[in-house]
Amino acid sequence: MVVSHDIHLDDDYAVWIADVKHRYRSAQVKAAFKVNAEKLLFNWQLGRDLVKKKAEERWGAGVVEQVSLDLQREFPGEKGFSTPNLWFMKKWYLFYSSEDSQQKLQQAVGEMQIPINQIDKKLYQVGGEIDSQKLYQAGRELPLPFALVPWRHHVEIITKCIVSVCVCYKKS
Fold first, then answer.
1. CA–CA separation, 63 and 54 (whole Å)
2. What is the CB-side half-sphere exposure of residue 49 using CA atoms within 13 A?
3. Which of 30, 32, 81, 167 could be joined to 128 by an S-S link, Cβ 3.0–4.6 Å?
4. 5's torsion region: left (phi>0), alpha (psi -120 to 50) or beta?
5. For residue 79, how many C-alpha atoms fall within 13 Å in the half-sphere facing its CB?
6. How much is the pTM?
7. CA dihedral 15, 16, 21, 22 (to 10 degrees)
8. To which H or E segment does residue 61 belong?
9. pLDDT digits (tens, 9 = 90+) for 7-39
10. How far apart are CA 150 and CA 157, in angstroms?
């Protein structure tokens, strides 16, 4: 422990400062979780927009590249607006928004034997005051458990699943 002045530090102080440090670390985790959840919601919505607006049909084959350039120009210090990443956002939305995927997700959650209210509770514990309703706004929005998974993991999951589907399709 660093002592800065002529003071008397007792056990009560040591317990209190340990609690302060713990609360700060907890606040850091909650803040990181909230930032991750918001960015995932943004990625989901951008993928959805590209699908629902039928962007390539409407504005041409290079529209995803143009969106990437526009976002990179507007937010030069931000990562995640590369053309491949925008394509992943679209694939991610398509992969999980289909009826078949929704059924598989419900089945997976059922197999995990975690009721949705437990997921809400876990999100609250990890993310503090996260607004789970915001993640579900307007139709099929970001499935709540997705907020617990970092973006790069989502990219790996869909990449491996799409590759395995293609391999299975070629075999049949």
1. 10
2. 10
3. 30
4. beta
5. 2
6. 0.70
7. 70
8. none
9. 888 899 999 999 999 999 999 988 988 888 889
10. 11
